[in-house]
Fold:
Amino acid sequence: MSETQDTHTSRGVGNSRLEWRRGLRWFSAEFLVVVLGILVALALSAWWTDRLERAQETELLLGLRSEISANLELFDRTADLHRRTIDQARQLLTFTGPAPADFDPAAIDSLLFPLLSEIPSFHPAMGEVEAMLGAGQLGLIQNDRLRTAIAGWSGALALLRETEDEMRGDVMQGFYPYMSTRIPLVTMDHNVGFIKTPGPSRFKQDYALLLSDVVFENHVENRWVMARFILQDGEPVRELLNEILQMINAELEGGY
Structure:
């Protein structure tokens, strides 16, 4: 092979290597651009998804805050009714005994009527919580403590409802049937203005006999004791509601 041919061959090989390196650099640059583009797209997608989820979380928290706030107010009103029941029952017990005297039948009516007709129960709104749990959106709540508290809210009512049901059963199946065989209820209803009647019953309203009956005293005693148990069982419920509300407020304010 001639010297000229060797030179041309060497140059051809050199040019091929140069082109291959240029192509490799171009490919690497293009590959890097594609990878960076994918990473940016993934980052933007994750950012957008997180933004949507945070917006959903805020919407959920706003609805929950309104519902929990209303439930706290309802709880306090219901608790006040139980406290009034306790006061009325205790006042009524001051008139009971073997030989009751110096009592005003109208005062007995005003104390006895609510013990028979008013059976306070806490019936909180659960729409927001149930909708969130039903839609599987609990996971949108980022705060672990708040998420756990919300999940346990329904179960926290179980003991309170059990005690309320026991009290309601005692009144409707025990106290009220007892009273209906002892006094003319229409007279009490008439005297307190519960219903408009032509007048009191023609049957005698013998409160002296009623107040001297130990069974009546036991019914009244049980009435206020059950109300006290309800208040005790309701304390953890109120504490949980208040804790949930405080955490929600902190989350919405961005400070929790």
Q: What stands out?
A: The chain has a mean pLDDT of 84. The first helix runs from residue 3 to 93.
